[in-house]
């Protein structure tokens, strides 16, 4: 099968590309500037220069493809960059969906659990849980709007499936993305962990489920690709044990969280640039993003390898590629 992959330089997209090649598929990727990115070096694939925000680029890239896995997205957890995220996450998804509809080919859209409902410690959310409770920052809003745009096209005949991954770790995290959390635990050894928790999974398991969805997913359906539900305190403690670092002392209290978020927002205002520490990110990190992946396991053959193996493999990959000391 000839598959077009967008977002091929990102964590999930790069793992999808490599897995498709290993399984004997022909792969075409669309990237903005292939000359400046090492994430695709040495891979036997077709590279098309273009941007998901450009309709002509996407239509050309989709020509001759038998399927599209759309993994391109802009991720920033904060209050800013809403316009840029709307252009990439919403308009880009709509444009890719239009190309798939025009060429009558299957599409898998890689969304996020952040587009879904908030889970609870004692009640993980699923695909049917009412989408309430999430902090309405631009990333959450644009991921939801992207799914809404796609559902409109599905109503017009688009053959598409939506997958919603959780917090992913694993190799080939070139940017890096969620791996920044592991790098922070290794380098900074933060004494306080966020109050909340998340569903944590291996990007390689997510990539395989995305490929399976090309054949097995039901049109118009969402599939949660989560994993082990655990607090960030427990996650950081396990990261520290694997990497030989100091574990966090305790969780952040609500007052400390509010104060740090306030000063993070003030700093962003003064500097004109929002960093990773801001009130939106801290509020989201105080929630429990717990989910059930039962539907994906039943219909896509989704499986989860042990989390400690995932964290070990991620740590070793960062060491071998110069992000962390050997």
UniProtKB/TrEMBL annotation:
GO terms for molecular function: aldehyde dehydrogenase (NAD+) activity. It comes from the Bacteria. Residues 3-226 form the NAD-dependent epimerase/dehydratase domain. GO terms for cellular component: cytoplasm. This is NAD-dependent epimerase/dehydratase family protein. It comes from Bremerella cremea. The lineage of its organism: Bacteria, Pseudomonadati, Planctomycetota, Planctomycetia, Pirellulales.
């Amino acid at each position: 099968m000839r598959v077009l992959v967008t977002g091929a330089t990102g964590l999930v997209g790069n793992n999808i590309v490599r897995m498709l090649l290993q399984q004997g598929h022909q792969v075409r990727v669309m990237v903005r500037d292939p000359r400046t990115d090492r994430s695709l070096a040495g891979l036997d694939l077709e590279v098309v220069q273009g941007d998901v925000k450009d309709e002509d680029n996407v239509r050309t890239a989709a020509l001759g493809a038998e399927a599209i896995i759309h993994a391109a997205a802009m991720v920033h957890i904060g209050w800013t960059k809403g316009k840029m995220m709307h252009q990439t996450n919403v308009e880009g998804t709509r444009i890719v969906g239009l190309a798939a509809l025009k060429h009558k080919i299957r599409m898998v859209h890689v969304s996020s659990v952040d587009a879904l409902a908030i889970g609870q410690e004692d009640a993980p959310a699923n695909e049917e849980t009412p989408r309430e409770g999430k902090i309405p920052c631009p990333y959450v809003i644009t991921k939801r709007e992207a799914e809404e745009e796609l559902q409109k096209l599905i109503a017009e005949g688009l053959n598409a499936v939506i997958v919603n991954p959780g917090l992913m770790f694993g190799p080939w995290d070139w940017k890096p993305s969620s791996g920044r959390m592991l790098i922070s635990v290794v380098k900074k050894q933060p004494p306080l962990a966020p109050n909340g928790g998340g569903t944590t999974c291996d990007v390689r398991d997510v990539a395989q489920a995305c490929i399976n969805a090309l054949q097995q997913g039901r049109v118009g359906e969402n599939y949660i690709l989560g994993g082990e539900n655990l607090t960030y305190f427990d996650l950081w403690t396990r990261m520290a044990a694997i990497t030989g670092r100091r574990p966090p002392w305790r969780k952040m209290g609500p007052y400390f969280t509010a104060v740090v978020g306030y000063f993070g927002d003030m700093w962003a205002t003064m500097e004109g640039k929002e960093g990773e520490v801001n009130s939106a990110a801290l509020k989201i990190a105080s929630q429990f993003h717990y989910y059930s992946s039962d539907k994906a396991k039943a219909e896509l053959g989704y499986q989860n390898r042990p989390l400690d193996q995932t964290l070990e493999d991620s740590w070793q990959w960062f060491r071998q590629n110069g992000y962390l000391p050997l």
